[in-house]
Amino acid sequence: MVAMPPRTRIDFGEYLRHRRAGARPPDRPAGGPGAQRRVPGLRRQELAEAAGISVEYYVRLEQGRAPRPSREVLAALARALGLAGAERGHLFRLAGEPPPEPPAPEDLVRPGLLRLLRGLDDTVPVSVHSGRLDLLARNAAATEIFGREDGSGPFRDNIVRHGFTESAPLLLGEEGADRYARWAAAELRAALARYPDDDYLRSLRAELAATSADFRGHWARGEVASARSAVKRLLHPTRGWLEFQSEMLHDPERDHWVVIYASAR
What we know:
Blueprint (H helix, E strand, L loop, with lengths): L5 H17 L21 H8 L3 H8 L8 H11 L3 H10 L16 H9 L6 E5 L4 E4 L1 H7 L12 H4 L4 H28 L4 H13 L1 H7 L9 E8 L3 E12 L4 E8 L2
Antiparallel strand pairs: 1-2, 1-5, 3-4, 4-5
Helix pairs in contact: 2-3, 2-4, 4-5, 9-11
């Protein structure tokens, strides 16, 4: 295991001390031993016990004298300190490790983001989809250019499935539909890498593999989606061909993707 640089070890130890001081101590019986505490937060021994590591090792971590902790130790420290989201991610990054993926993507869009979508109803098309690739929200401007999805079933709102329907070439043209299908298969592969045990994503892949030769062909490429910026041409039923520059912005805490469509002309 590669050791942390000295400056990083010091920053890591300082963050541990700061979070320990702000952590809630265990409940003690009134009048019992330890009921009166001289300092706020958790004691080193309490935190070490909660994380399942030795007090000596924890003290060395705080003092910046310990080697790089494993991901298991980092996860245990995060649980013991009650860290989640950005705070847990910061702990992992300080130790030189990528933060763990959330156990599952959120299905609820932040209220503030929904207000933003409504505020842009008459100007900029915006949509939001989850890490499961389900469309969660779309403002009026986006609905006007994309139309409403027909159909039923568990994958009705899934943007990957949309790429393998008969309506895709009607909206995007043959060439555009093929590009979208290629992107959709690669995006599904990336989502399955983040959530390999997700029943919904596994079922989506199984259904597309069983029903779409086009999907099977694109899946066989073994590609993983990475492009977050693209020019898209859409055929509107009354306005003709429209061209947009699309940009995808990520909310890592909920694993939501906000897609903004700006006119390319």
